[in-house]
Amino acid sequence: FYDNGIKIINGQGHKMEAEVEEKIEDYIDGKIEELPLATKENIGRTIDYAAGRNRYIGHLISLATRSFKDMKIGLDCANGSAFSIAKSVYDALGAKTYVINNDPDGTNINTNCGSTHIKVLQQFVKDNKLDVGFAFDGDADRCIAVDENGDVVNGDLILYICGKYLMEQGRLADNTIVTTVMSNLGLYKACDNIGMRYEQTAVGDKYVYENMLQNGYVLGGEQSGHIIFSKYAKTGDGILTSLMLMEVIMEKKQTLAHLSEEVKIYPQLLQNVRVTDKKTARENPAVIKAIGEVTEALGSDGRILVRESGTEPVLRVMVEAPADDICEKYVKQVVKVLEAEKLVAEA
User: Fold this and answer.
1) Which residues, listed in sequence order, are joined to residue 269 by a DSSP beta bridge?
2) Do the Cβ atoms of 158 and 227 come closer than 8 Å?
3) 133 contacts 145 by C-beta, under 8 angstroms
4) pLDDT tens-digit readout, 33-87
């Protein structure tokens, strides 16, 4: 709970500009003027804005295209902000709603629950023989789904399923979805097969939305379940995402497992390497050569991505390939070069 941040929205409903956020952070951190600060569980209070909540619930209900009658739906609310919303929406739409982790006490948000601990919902869906499950995170801007077999349907799969459906309806602007560089190669291959185009941005839903805004795209998101449907929202909204996925399930009369079948997710291995200097390590000629060799060896059957962490002195080495052992082989190959060049920080 003490890792939860504050999301600040500007007058246009967009996420606050980075430079304004930095000034607020400086003020909070006492760089501008020292403030007596509460910490951890002593921070904050809740004020229930009932009228706003009811308007929001009404808005979400209005987006559904048909009733969810006879559907058994599981919701994991992560003991977070979806707790007073999600069940009301699904009950109103006629679903048989099963809810877990819906009892926040101020300190149990995201604790072994929600989209970041998806195994809990996977087991719950299987135990109760549900048709589908949706897990939100603490601030409910993410949604990860679980199909009727208990298998995870992550953000990449959600983008594919909703993108394909919108494309069939003629509602996907320029037949294009917006992804980040961390999206799985399997998503791109599946998109190529059906003629759906894609853009790639830096990691972060902020960058996804910027691209959507500039180009008029209507759907974008991240593997983590941050999905933006720009017709209805300017940021990720987990409950909205779940409703959009339900629309596809109901309108196409197909199970979530069936809708996911066309995407073959490639194994992905990510290793964080602590380095003495990110930029020096990333631009080292031997490292660049090693990355090039892996790229050539993988060809169109995989890819390597080496990028700097935005916040830590870390290089993230990620390989996608048809098998786990291939991923491991090539990640090790690049890490060995980093070590040989004495770029790795001592533990």
Assistant:
1) 319
2) yes
3) yes
4) 766 678 888 877 778 899 999 999 999 999 999 999 999 999 999 999 999 999 9
Q: Provide DSSP, 291-326.
A: HHHHHHHHGGG-EEEEEE-SSSSEEEEEEE-SSHHH
- Residue 218 CA to residue 233 CA, distance in Å, equals 10
Instruction: Give the SS3 label for residue 1.
Output: coil
* Domains defined for the chain, CATH in brackets: 1-40 (no CATH), 59-260 (3.40.120.10), 268-340 (3.30.310.50)
Give which of 61, 87, 67 is closest to 75, Cα–Cα.
87
Tokens 């070069």 belong to which residue?
Answer: 337
Q: Which two tokens stand for residue 84?
A: 């007073």
- CB-count burial class (<10 Å; 0-12, 13-18, 19+) for 189: middle
Report the predicted TM-score, pTM, of the whole model to 2 decimal places. 0.87
Helices assigned H by DSSP within 64-103: 86-92
Instruction: Name the nearest CA neighbour of 74 among 132, 129, 155.
Output: 132
> CA 30, CA 72: separation in Å to the nearest integer?
50
| 121-139: burial string, b at 16+ Cβ within 10 Å, e else | bbebbeeeebbbbbbbbbb
